[in-house]
From TrEMBL:
May be involved in cell proliferation and cell motility. This is Tetraspanin. It is found in: Membrane. It holds the Pfam family Tetraspanin. Belongs to the tetraspanin (TM4SF) family. The keyword Glycoprotein applies. It comes from Poecilia latipinna. It comes from the Eukaryota. Keywords: Glycoprotein, Membrane, Transmembrane, Transmembrane helix. The chain crosses the membrane at residues 12-35, 55-73, 85-107, 208-232. It is a multi-pass membrane protein. SUPFAM superfamilies: Tetraspanin. The keyword Lipid metabolism does not apply.
Length: 244
């Protein structure tokens, strides 16, 4: 009987943890859906081919939601084998997040190289109509930048001979007309001089430590759930405790 308070305490903590875990899954699912619907074209600028990142988030979020509910059910039932299965799943999530975090940090320079290649290709083949071109316009408008390294990158694009530099490079859209943007002498006074590649990569470098810290923090939080599930399973088994 003296173990009942301990079991009750562990169950309460594990239910709270499972609920938080479930919320994490719901957030990942929402971010994945949002990324697919809203950021698809822009994500393509940092990948050589179509990226599956939104689908990975959607799938991961769905699985976490299911196992979060399973964790609550296993805890309420007080079933040792269910709790062990839950702990095993948490260990797999922990390893997956750890590998993803380490891989992102180690291969960050390759990510920068990929972004440089894909963004250069998008600029050279810009036509103002396809998804990649709209993504370039969005990026230049949002970051107030022009071209890969500077506005001169547009001189080699297929768009420049007949249309000039895209209007998304203009820092004052009301004082920016197609004739000025086709004039290599006048255009520099109408457009941003800083390239987008430098802005994006500096942001990545500045925030990489924060991103890595959050990733590892979330990963190691799985250890708490694993510990709670294993302890509760062991105590229930040792004391032949069953919840009626």
């Amino acid at each position: 009987m003296e173990t009942k308070p301990v079991i009750t305490c562990l169950k309460t903590l594990l239910i709270v943890y499972s609920f938080v875990f479930w919320i994490t899954g719901a957030i990942l699912l929402a971010v994945g859906v949002w990324g697919k619907l809203m950021l698809g074209p822009y994500i393509s600028l940092i990948a050589d081919n179509s990226t599956n990142a939104p689908y990975v988030l959607i799938g991961t979020g769905t699985i976490i939601i299911v196992f979060g509910l399973f964790g609550c059910f296993a805890t309420c039932r007080g079933s040792p084998w269910m709790l062990k299965l839950y702990a095993m799943f948490l260990s797999l999530v922990f390893l997956a997040e750890l590998v993803a975090g380490i891989s992102g940090f180690v291969f960050r320079h390759e990510i920068k190289g990929t972004f440089r290649r894909t963004y250069t290709d998008a600029v050279l083949n810009y036509n103002a109509k396809d998804e990649a071109s709209r993504a370039v316009d969005y990026l230049q408008n949002s970051l107030r930048c022009c071209g890969v390294y500077n506005y001169t990158n547009w001189f080699g694009s297929v768009f420049y001979p007949s249309n000039g530099i895209p209007a998304s490079c203009c820092f004052n859209s009301s004082d920016c007309n197609p004739d000025d943007l086709r004039n290599a002498t006048v255009a520099p006074s109408k457009v941003y001089h800083q390239g987008c590649f430098e802005l994006v990569t500096s942001f990545m470098e500045t925030n990489m430590a924060i991103i890595a810290g959050v990733t590892f923090g979330i990963a190691f939080s799985q250890l708490i759930g694993m510990l709670l599930a294993c302890c509760l399973s062991r105590i229930i088994t040792a004391n032949q405790y069953e919840m009626v």
